[in-house]
Amino acid sequence: MEIRPALFLDRDGVLNKDRGYVARVTDLEWVEGAMETVAAFKARAWFVFVVTNQTGIAHGLYTEEDMQAVHDHLLFEFGAHGAEIDRIYHCPFHPDGSEPRYARESLDRKPGPGMLLQAMADFPVRREGSFLIGDKPADIQAAHAAGVGGFLFEGGNLASFAEWALAAFEDGSR
Predict the structure, then answer these.
(1) Cys-Cys link to 25, which of 4, 19, 73, 144 (CB 3.0-4.6 A)?
(2) What is the pLDDT of residue 173?
(3) Domains identified in the chain and CATH numbers
(4) Is 12 tagged catalytic?
């Protein structure tokens, strides 16, 4: 497989509207431009990964199986629109979790870079050409800790923002 850049995307607040804990398929509402963003970067032959903290699992609000059903639906919907996501990485851990199995620190939990580093170990990612779009400072911290660029998305059309971020990134702004 050829070495390629990657677009890392947070899930809640970037691909879908953040409604607190998105634990069911019925909770999903896509952010405007989300599918177009993924399709545009796939057309450029980029890898596209989702990296998402799933604290609700650690707090016992939903299970990993519930989350997987949401992710399966997400992958299906994006794929049906010609916007294939290469892989979704998630972190179910939180040090203050109420579920003992998930109540711990983890390098995977953003702002830790673990999910991004795992994606770069699993796929031939060109790190210096890659960046993340997230909606929280912890997302950007994780990107920088993993050695990739990071852009803070504060709402609006994700496709327009992603094109702006790509131009800024290529100009060396981030």
Answers:
(1) 73
(2) 59
(3) 34-103+112-129+139-170 (3.40.50.1000)
(4) yes
